[in-house]
Amino acid sequence: MICNNLGINEKGHLTFAGHDTVDLAEKYQTPAYIMDENKIREKCRIYKKAMSEFFGGNSMPLFASKSLCFKRIYEIMKEEEMGIDVVSPGELYTAVKAGFPMERAYFHGNNKTDFDIAFAIENGIGYFVCDNVEELDAIDREAGNKGIKQKIILRLTPGIDPHTHAKISTGNVDSKFGAAIETGQAKELVELALSKKNIALMGYHCHIGSQIFEYDPFCDAAVIMIKFIADMKTELGFEASVLNLGGGMGVKYVESDPEIDYAKNIEGIADLVKSECAKLGVTMPTILMEPGRSIVADAGLTLYTAGTRKEIKGFKNYVSIDGGMPDNPRYALYQSAYTVMVANKANEEADYECTIAGRCCESGDLIQEGVKIPKPERGDTIAVLTTGAYNFAMSSNYNAICKPPVIMLDGEKDYVAVKRESFDDLIARQV
Ligand code: LLP
Q1: Do residues 12 and 128 both lie within one domain?
Q2: Ligand 1 midpoint to CA 161 (Å)
Q3: Would you give the end-to-end CA distance of the chain in angstroms?
Q4: Which is catalytic among the residues 3, 69, 130, 361?
Q5: CATH no. for residue 158?
Q6: How many domains in the chain?
């Protein structure tokens, strides 16, 4: 099994966090997102412990809530004493409504509007991760209006190109995010930030991409960022006290993916950061990281019910499920790999090769191609594993399909964190 919260019980059913998934499918109906609350907490603690042990000081992980955003998640993040990164006023609002302490919130985005900026300041945002010159001007203006000095860090691109899908790679010079160090624009942004009366520049941020298995790109980025801190200290007399290294550590989706030891990676990056700081005469900054996927991905799975089976003789087999790209667009977008199981036949031989198709009126609506599972019958429960990150968060109502609920598992308990959308919800905003 790809994660230790999965198992098979005496009935031959797939279990998740100790719960029989077939029973869950019956109780809550399908499709349904199922989340293992204790796995989320365990991952938060791994990051928190390793960061405070190896980086020391006030170093802390910020949960990248673009990967999973609803009120209960922010409550859990508050209880686990995590920080958060938000990327829209909607995420920010959800966090506020959940009672998250906003001084530990960092507001991202390459195109924050004047409304977003004012809204964030009104709600006591801790830091802006400022992306560009226009935004710097707008934050300065709005902070001035509100009579405060706003803390910010600057988003920079270190020029790293990690091996991941092009659509989720962000740290190279050709990116819509941040200011490039290589072109001199990062330095210009620092100078401008330092000249602003209502802005307190605290440091820098970089994020090189997502679902990265290698460890070297993170080290390369850290080295470049510390060199930049040293250069700005020498050239402008400004020494950053905060360095945010972003998120991006990979997650095991299928057997062939490696398993990452997050604490060990953090230890290695910390050793390097410390030695680079010592070498360049820089005071060790407070280090922040922004994991999203690696906190919640394997804390989730999606349950579906098998419907039609279409066998095209001598060519291929399709198994259609009662969900698809509206609840998980990741295969359609990035050809993402997933492990698929027949939850009520978890012990049976996986010898039926098929493509798992959704129910949308579009051929690209696939969840996975060429998987091997026990031959499913109509009514069987299909589980797609590791869907905790960027599934609920990226879900849509394409084809006017209602979004699934989010069911949380906590020890023996199971409870609804987000209700299933109803037809009335679908038309609620229509006049
Ligand atoms: N920080 C920043 C600034 C980011 O842009 C991201 C992800 C993260 C942190 C969190 O990265 P993580 O630890 O989750 O890899 N929708 C895509 C992923 C997009 C990632 C966007 N940024 C997917 O489904 O794979």
Answers
A1: no
A2: 15
A3: 48
A4: 361
A5: 3.20.20.10
A6: 2
CA-closest residue to ligand 1 atom 6: 247
360 is catalytic: no
pLDDT given at position 161: 78
Average pLDDT of the residues in 263-273: 97
For residue 159 the two structure tokens come to 């020029």
Ligand 1 midpoint to CA 344 (Å)? 33
The response to whether residue 390 sits with its C-beta less than 6 Å from ligand 1 reads: yes
Closest of 345, 340, 339 to residue 377, by C-alpha: 345
Write a three-state SS string for 278-318.
HHHCCCCCEEEECCCHHHHHHHEEEEEEEEEEEEECCCEEE
Is 293 a pocket residue for ligand 1 (Cβ < 6 Å)?
Answer: yes
Q: Domain boundary at 291, 307, 327, which?
A: 291
- Report CA(246)–ligand 1 centroid distance (Å): 9
For the stretch 108-118, pLDDT in tens is 999 999 999 99
**pLDDT tens digits for 341-391?**
999 999 999 999 999 999 999 999 999 999 999 999 999 999 999 999 999
Say what the pLDDT of residue 381 is: 98
Domain that holds residue 224: 108-291
* Ligand 1 atom nearest residue 155's Cα: 3
168 lines ligand 1 (CB under 6 A): yes
Same domain, 399 and 331: yes
Do 319 and 212 belong to one domain? Answer: no
CA dist., res. 33 & res. 404, Å (int): 7
| Average of per-residue pLDDT values in the chain | 96
- Res. 173: pLDDT tops 80: no
Q: DSSP strand E in 25-68: where?
A: 32-36, 60-64
